[in-house]
Design a protein that fits this description.
The chain is α+β, with helices and mostly antiparallel strands. The chain has 17 helices and 29 strands. It starts with a helix and ends with a strand. About 18% of the residues have low confidence.
Length: 666
Amino acid sequence: MAEFMMMLIQMSIQATFIVLVVLVIRKLFEWLRISKKYTMLLWIIPFFCLVCPWKISVPVGFWNFAPADVVTQANEKAAETGNEQSGAGSGQDNENLQNVAGSGQSNVDLQNSAGNGQNNVNLQNSAGNDGVQNNENLQNGTGSGKGNGTIQDEQNISESVNGIIQIITKRMGMIAGIVWLVGFLLLMIYSVISYVGLKKKLLCSVKVENGIFLADGITTPIVFGIIKPYIYLPTGLPAEYEKYVVAHERTHIKRGDYLWKMMLFLITGVHWFNPLVWYAFYLAGKDMEMACDEETVQTIGLEERKSYANTLLTMSGKDALKKRRIFMAPLSFDEGNTKGRIKNIMKYKKTMTFFAMVAILVVALLTMVFLSKKEEKNVSPEIEETESGEQQIKEETVLTFEMFRAAFYDQKFREMDFKSYENIEPEEEEYEGRLTDTYWFYLTYQDEVYRLQVDYEKDTDRLSYIYVYRPSDAELLLVYNEGGYVNDIDTMVNTKTTIDQWLTLELPEGYSLGEYNASLGWDGGALILPEVYEVKGEDLAPDEWKSAGFVGRTDQETANFHYVNGIPDGENCPANNHTSGEILGVLTDLDRPAVFAHQNHDLYSASQMGELWAQGITIEDETSDYWYFFFAKEDVEEIYYLSLSTRCFSKEEAIEIARTVKFTEE
């Protein structure tokens, strides 16, 4: 079950990225007025990938280092930590056992990273000229004395930890599998019950002609049936509408839409835990209806589309099946989105041959791209024989975080050829007028994913910069530049900022404090959710200007405060670009003195607003408005601040929330 859930999650993650691409291409098709029948072809790609875990291996495939692979790597890493770092039962023993020929000493380095720390055991044996013999005995586990016992103990501990990790991983997979199965079964049971209930309502229907029935239990025309579908019309349907309704439903049957919808629903049900898959199912249903409308209008004649649109408008709002449309509901004439369908009908004209060919080509290319993966090379590491007759791994083919970290502390970055590793993503960039070759690595360490950025100067091929980035909280650390080694890697690895390390506060019901993110504000912070301002078009406004509030941090230099008796004088406060406002005073009865201000942020630049107006997009909010509290002490370098939307909180309510702020960092 654990393996099945991991495969299911991988497919869902991959399909999520495909859906996002399809949304972009769908918008492009809409702008080019390409028929919805070609848009429907786009949806085949993500839904196929949701049920097909297999990809075609090619030299350069799309899924070389997709996030789904990161999930797999993280899972494998958790299960193999003991073996990888202790070397128990693997070829790594040969690397850790080093013999100094002729010295009479045998040096053994055993590393075990079970838990959070690292234990180093150095065993030295002085036995005259028999160092090689001692080395062989230690490797085979046949030597005597305290040193050999320690090696065996380390291996036993490593195997025990590895076993525990595997058990925990398996049980978590089983729990996730049970939750998924329960959710899937409940969804299917509810859908079947709804379907059977509707079938009972149709039992008393009256046949009016071949394949068409009148029924009392429905309020909108539907197509019902799987093997042999029929058209059911509500009793009392005006005769002037019947022509268009029947034409529409027959088009559905001709196109096989009733089967497609059921298939898409079943696939969506398998991935019920992914909200973006539900959204894709919803949009695919809308596109299916519009494609059916287009084909129906083409069949009855373009001159009658106005009458067809009037029929659609009149029939809207009467569908008794709306409450269960997202489940196993049959196709009905009124599938919602009446306004969009009417606009599409009235603007519809047959897609030009050129654009039709382009659409088909785009779908074909996307299909080939998303069904490809980089072929896995079975690379056997090069082996060389030492003077003592041992075999050692000559070169690693995949960079791991442990290798990278060790090279940092040994200061061996310049000796490493980062470009030779297989798990690499190359990219050419221009930085300060110089072309660089940038290489990306996605590595896992202690259940976290890290991204390494390694830059080489293109002209000289000289190593210039190395950054470590942690996506979970957007922390970025420069660890190496042309001047040498900069920041300690473990500063990031062993430290993860949380807001409660700064302060605590109480929020009213309905509001919550998000996770710390280093990319927010001046120097990181956390959003107070939910988002209360919507920004349309190209989204450049900071997230903290759109949420219900924000908790952030900056420094004395940025704040530029002046103090009187240790308290800010209230003459100025920090402000971002595109911000205006006023200082309302200084509050001294809080946990720390705070400059109280009212600030207004521009959500759009002038050029953005011009572009949106030209596109006919209405902008509801041009600015966002906030109360600000800048908590400051003269002898503390950090300035903390709290912003609260005036849309959500009155001045008095904001002050009361500020009173709940208690600082945990001095």
